[in-house]
Write a structure and sequence with these properties.
- By secondary structure, this protein is α/β, with parallel strands linked by helices.
- The chain has one domain: P-loop containing nucleotide triphosphate hydrolases (Rossmann fold, 3-Layer(aba) Sandwich).
- It is built from 10 helices and 10 strands.
- It has a 6-stranded mixed sheet, with helices on both faces.
- Strand 7, helix 7 and strand 8 form a beta-alpha-beta unit.
- Helix 3 runs parallel beside helix 6.
- The mean pLDDT is 91.
Length: 239
């Protein structure tokens, strides 16, 4: 069976700067795959390139066998990919409920998002409690839950999570990672970008290490956890 997501020779540029240098990466249906690397390695660029911004300079992106490399971003979203971006990027003046309904715009098949909203509330009960509260008044962890919930409202087949633990307290990080595991057990495929390499590799089925825009290591997450070079670069002091 072919991968749900398949990147081949993907290159991306910002002007003269080559941010991605020939990325080969795949995500199978039902997997959690994590991408780890230092700041500036190209992790966020890879995620946003999948969504069409920046557009790939060369290479190919296949989603469920369909070439989406040149697709407009809104069509990529409607094909079944949703992104919870780095920094959360919620709408601060909108209420929690309004933020979530904005995510449902990406679901072209659902006339009534109520059932999906109920699933999001079951995953993050706090979002139901804060439905009428403005997004900008939430804590960082609450905003992260809102960003993930908003992405889920599109009912994606592939969820892209960009640094979901960034800047959060350890207790909230555990809650976020528990939610990701629960989503995956329910059948959702996840591509996870994380600086918390220890947590990410414990959660994921497979992993990739990105250095200066290129993949340098790939394999089962449990094996990457034991690699001396991975431990030295990303896991020292991790708990």
């Amino acid at each position: 069976m072919s991968p749900l997501l398949d990147l081949t020779g993907l290159r991306a540029r910002y002007g003269a700067v080559e941010a991605l240098r020939g990325i080969d990466l795949h995500v199978n249906q039902g997997e959690i795959v994590t991408l780890i690397g230092a700041n500036g390695a190209g992790k966020t660029t890879l995620m946003t390139s999948i969504c069409g911004s920046p557009r790939a300079a060369s290479g190919r992106i296949l989603f469920d066998g369909t070439d989406i490399t040149e697709m407009p971003t809104h069509q990529i979203m409607r094909a079944g990919i949703a992104l919870s971006p780095e920094g959360r990027r919620i709408f601060p003046r909108m209420t929690v409920a309004e933020n979530l309904l904005m995510g449902a715009i990406g679901d072209a098949t659902a006339a009534d998002p109520a059932a999906t909203l109920a699933q999001v509330h079951a995953l993050f009960p706090l979002l139901a409690e804060r439905a009428s509260q403005r997004g900008g008044t939430l804590s960082g962890g609450e905003q992260q839950m809102l960003a993930i919930g908003r992405a889920l409202m599109a009912r994606p087949r592939l969820l892209l999570l960009d640094e979901p633990s960034l800047g959060l307290a350890p207790l909230i990080v555990r809650q976020i990672f528990a939610a990701i595991a629960e989503l995956n057990r329910a059948g959702l495929t996840v591509l996870l970008v994380e600086q918390n390499a220890h947590q990410a590799l414990r959660l994921a089925h497979r992993g990739y290490v990105l250095v200066n825009g290129a993949i340098t290591l790939a394999g089962p997450a449990a094996e990457l956890l034991q690699r001396p070079e991975v431990r030295a670069a990303y896991l020292e002091g991790a708990v």
